Amino acid sequence: MAPPSSPTSLHIKYVVFPPSGKPPSATTTLFLVLVGGRGMEIEGNFMKFTGIGVYLEDKAILSLAVKWKGKTTVELTDSIVFFRDIITVKYHGKRPFKRVFRIQEPVFVAFSALNIAMNFHGWISFFILLHYKLPMKPDKKPYYDYVGLWYLYGLLALNLWFGSVVFHSR
């Protein structure tokens, strides 16, 4: 199959968007389908400061060509649907993670468990500080107001991180 026609390369400062390229991890060649530069005119000189190049596989180019055939350049550049078709990437929910010990995401589980440990340590430290290190008020109430709210906050945080462990271990 012959490569589709591609716009010429775009030069912005020292960055060049070539007409086609092959990423290191890909097996197919990608072709430049959209190029654009943004800038401003200063004292009669147009200064480019932003550039964008959109690359697609040849299969995507052919499927878009059928859908957008017969449209003028102005109609395409003014069409939000056209840009959504080009830039929207379909995510099929397939993660690149491997199961280890029947756990889908072991690193996330480990960090969530570490967060549980740190939250529990902070909750216990607050309890010890409040009841054993700080003086009590004359009416035998704790030194801080709203102690029950802080206990509840600590329990909710522990529950949240436990839920994170369960979620990432599914």
UniProtKB/TrEMBL annotation:
Presence of the UniProt keyword Transmembrane in the record: yes
Chalcone isomerase domain residues: 13-91
GO biological process: flavonoid biosynthetic process; GPI anchor biosynthetic process
Pfam families: Chalcone
Gene Ontology CC: Golgi membrane
Species this protein is from: Lactuca saligna (Willowleaf lettuce)
PANTHER family: CHALCONE--FLAVANONE ISOMERASE 1-RELATED (PTHR28039:SF8), CHALCONE--FLAVONONE ISOMERASE 1-RELATED (PTHR28039)
GO molecular function: chalcone isomerase activity
Residue ranges crossing the lipid bilayer per the database entry: 107-130, 150-167
Claim: Isomerase is one of the keywords in the record: yes
Coiled coil (residue ranges): none
Pathway: Secondary metabolite biosynthesis; flavonoid biosynthesis
Lineage: Eukaryota, Viridiplantae, Streptophyta, Embryophyta, Tracheophyta
UniProt name for this protein: Chalcone-flavonone isomerase family protein
Family, as annotated: Belongs to the chalcone isomerase family.
UniProt function note: Catalyzes the intramolecular cyclization of bicyclic chalcones into tricyclic (S)-flavanones. Responsible for the isomerization of 4,2',4',6'-tetrahydroxychalcone (also termed chalcone) into naringenin.
